[in-house]
Amino acid sequence: MPTSQMLSRTYGRSAVDRRVDAREPSLEGARAALECFYFAFNQRSLDALEAVWAPGTLISLDNPLGGIMRGLDDIRALYQRIFSGPAQVWVEFHDVVEYVGQDTVVFAGRERGEFARDSHTVPLAIRTSRVFQYFGGQLGWRQVHHHGSIDDPEALVRYQQAVRGGHERRPCTVTPPWQ
């Protein structure tokens, strides 16, 4: 029987690498995988990030700048550009509700953080959902889907301009602009 509950925890810059714990076939294993994602992102660790995402061509990432990306190769390439690029980005997941099924957990909430590049710093406020599935064995819990969106149209434009390094207003493109 699926359950849902609000979490009082946040996952952000103080997140730790819990890859080993993410192999456990429990809700705490799913939470460990979620925390490991925020560790990987905020520490710019591609190795930890790859250990969080499921292998395969149909996993997906939907974000405010890059559109829909499918497959581990494209998702890895996106994060590699973010981690090695000139921008500094951090996020913290809060206001989290977890929806728990037999081998799937959906974490839905909000991210707050900052994007800084050159002389521009943009506060981030993103609605976020992350879906994890349990694969058993050495894989454990892995992320199979992420969706993030920015509510405020003006904040989205400021974020897009900061990412692109310009000040002009341009529409969002499907190709990630921080390449």
Distance between the termini: 44 Å
List how many beta strands DSSP finds.
Answer: 7
What is the average of the pLDDT values? 87
Helix-strand makeup class: alpha+beta
Evaluate the radius of gyration: 16 Å
The appropriate CATH architecture is Roll
Ranges where pLDDT stays below 50 over 5 or more residues in a row are 167-179
- Integer tally of domains: 1
Which characteristics define this entry?
single chain, Nuclear Transport Factor 2, Chain: A, disordered C terminus
What does this protein structure show overall?
- The chain has 179 residues and is an alpha+beta fold.
- The protein has a single domain (3-164), classed as Nuclear Transport Factor 2, Chain: A (Roll).
- It is 27% helix and 35% strand.
- It is built from four helices and seven strands.
- It has helices at residues 27-43, 46-52, 72-84, 153-164, and strands at 3-6, 60-63, 67-70, 88-100, 104-117, 120-134, 141-149.
- The chain has a seven-stranded mixed sheet with strand order 1-4-5-6-7-2-3.
- Strand 6 and strand 7 form a beta hairpin.
- Helix 1 packs antiparallel against helix 2.
- The relative contact order is 0.19.
- The model is unreliable at 167-179 (pLDDT under 50).
